[in-house]
């Protein structure tokens, strides 16, 4: 080959390689990402084996083990100030799906709101509006006041609620027989209740199969859906809404026996809960491994969040073997499971609202820790922008897109329709509200509550200085309290929120009755 021919050959080859590289980059840019959203149930902020806040040693469990969640947090961004939309599962899940504060629907004066959602934006509808090529699926606990298919999902498990992960819901044991057997066991073995735990809890051991709490069933169905989408060359959104770690405390036998033999911590002690959480974490790891094995990790985002804060205490514990026989029963003595946060599920203190919250995927730097407050309300606009955007987020969408924050560490806020974080409940629950701006959070009780008989009507806390919300600083900051209470009142009035109590079932139950 002559020198000229050699030069021509090199130039030609370089040109071809450059063109191929450009084509690959263009295809890469045009390819829409896959989105996986894992929603855990009743998992508290401190219920992981990594620190929920790297600066707070007690923000990690001293007993529970979640190695895959730890790995997920390390592979992307861990949000220190990650909040559920509500401290209870049903309003939180509705709010997630609609991107709306629960005051706009579940706790609205219009009790028939759920009959009028035909044109409401939902996560799958918004994603499909951004790009109609997306395949969407929901597996696990639904508990939302519209059918998953009406919400826009292509595949789903139907109108599921808590019963899908309960022993009673599986037909494993009759609740009356269980209660009778437990009462007899307690009496015969002279087991006291020194800390006044609730009796009539739910069984813990469930060893009739390897799919306790449907953790691995949910995971398997999600993997099958993703395989099909990949084979079709379609981008996908899949939501895995786990029943774990909600009561019943159900796990695989071998996981339970591991924690039964493990030394208990000082803050976390319950082997039944620890085993269920570990099985849940194993399911998370299976999804992460699947993404890697399929070679789609550079095209796939994984988000994980708890649906509300962890339960403050556990009920009476009963362990049942594979033969449906009661083998042990005792009263839990652990009633402050969310330290350093105050209180837990159902509460408007941090223990009821702050949850595990993390994200990983293309463009998200590893080992990031963000202290920017984010909310489950942000998922609808976030997923929509990842899918292509160009969908109008009307004023009823209370969340904002986290995409700029995820991809750029210099971004210091999420743009929403309000600078305030607002939480509210009423109607078929005792009316309470909370509002946060910056470091300050105000909590308002609209009626007298026996549980909080020593609690003032309005409280103010500086979350930055007092994470445990131990000191009401309203007297020292009257102007801040006034601003927050006025803004809270204006919002609730604008959205037509109920602030009283009425004799009515939740909307999911009413829809099922209809």
Automatic annotation (TrEMBL):
SUPFAM superfamilies: Alkaline phosphatase-like
PROSITE patterns: PROKAR_LIPOPROTEIN (PS51257)
Annotated keywords: Calcium, Hydrolase, Metal-binding, Signal
Ranges where the Sulfatase N-terminal domain occurs: 33-388
Pfam families xrefs: Sulfatase (PF00884)
Signal peptide bounds: 1-19
Top-level taxon of origin: Bacteria
Obligatory cofactor(s): Ca(2+)
Region of interest (Disordered), residue spans: 188-210
Presence of the UniProt keyword Nuclease in the record: no
MF annotations from Gene Ontology: arylsulfatase activity; metal ion binding
Family the entry assigns: Belongs to the sulfatase family.
PANTHER family noted in UniProt: ARYLSULFATASE FAMILY MEMBER, ARYLSULFATASE G
Protein name as it appears in the record: Choline-sulfatase
Organism: Pontiella sulfatireligans
Gene symbol of the encoding locus: betC_76
């Amino acid at each position: 080959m002559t020198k000229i021919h050699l030069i021509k050959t090199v130039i030609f080859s370089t040109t071809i390689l450059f063109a191929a590289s450009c084509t690959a980059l263009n295809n890469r840019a045009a390819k829409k990402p896959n989105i996986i959203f894992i929603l855990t149930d009743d998992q508290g902020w401190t219920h992981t084996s990594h620190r929920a806040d790297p600066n707070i040693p007690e923000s990690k469990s001293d007993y529970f083990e979640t190695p895959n969640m730890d790995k997920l947090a390390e592979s992307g961004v861990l949000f220190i100030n990650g909040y559920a939309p509500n401290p209870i599962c049903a309003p939180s899940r509705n709010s997630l799906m609609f991107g709306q504060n629960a005051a706009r629907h579940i706790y609205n004066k219009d009790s028939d709101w759920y009959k009028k959602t035909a044109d409401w934006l939902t996560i799958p509808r918004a994603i499909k509006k951004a790009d109609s090529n997306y395949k969407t699926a929901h597996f696990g606990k639904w508990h939302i006041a519209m059918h998953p298919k009406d919400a826009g999902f292509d595949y789903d498990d139907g109108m599921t609620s808590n019963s899908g992960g309960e022993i009673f819901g599986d037909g494993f044991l009759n609740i009356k027989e269980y209660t009778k057997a437990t009462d007899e066991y307690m009496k015969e073995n002279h087991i006291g209740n020194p800390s006044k735990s609730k009796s009539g809890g739910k069984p813990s051991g469930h060893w009739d199969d390897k799919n306790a709490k449907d953790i691995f069933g949910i995971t398997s169905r999600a993997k099958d859906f993703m395989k099909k989408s990949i084979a079709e060359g379609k981008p996908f959104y899949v939501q895995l809404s786990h029943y774990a770690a909600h009561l019943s405390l159900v796990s695989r036998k071998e996981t339970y026996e591991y924690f039964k033999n493990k030394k208990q911590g000082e803050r976390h002690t319950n082997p039944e809960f620890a085993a269920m959480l570990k099985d849940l974490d194993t399911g998370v790891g299976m999804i992460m491994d699947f993404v890697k094995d399929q070679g789609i990790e550079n095209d796939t985002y994984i988000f994980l969040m708890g649906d509300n804060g962890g339960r403050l205490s556990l009920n009476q514990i009963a362990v049942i073997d594979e033969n449906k026989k009661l083998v042990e029963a005792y009263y839990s003595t652990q009633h402050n499971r969310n330290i350093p946060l105050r209180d837990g599920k159902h509460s408007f203190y941090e223990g009821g609202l702050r949850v595990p919250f993390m994200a990983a995927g293309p463009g998200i730097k590893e080992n990031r820790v963000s202290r920017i407050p984010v909310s489950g309300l942000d998922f609808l606009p976030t997923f929509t922008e990842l899918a292509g955007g160009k969908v109008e987020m009307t004023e009823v969408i209370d969340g904002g897109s986290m995409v700029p924050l995820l991809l750029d560490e210099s971004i210091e806020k999420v743009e929403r329709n309000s600078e305030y974080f607002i939480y509210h409940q009423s109607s078929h629950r005792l009316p309470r509200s909370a509002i946060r701006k910056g470091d300050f959070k105000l909590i308002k009780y609209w009626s007298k509550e026996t549980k909080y008989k020593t609690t003032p009507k309005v409280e103010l806390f500086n979350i930055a200085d007092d994470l445990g919300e131990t000191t009401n600083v309203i007297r020292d900051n009257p102007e801040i309290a006034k601003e927050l209470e006025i803004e809270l009142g204006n919002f609730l009035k604008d959205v037509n929120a109920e602030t009283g109590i009425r004799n009515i079932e939740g909307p999911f139950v009413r829809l099922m009755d209809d």
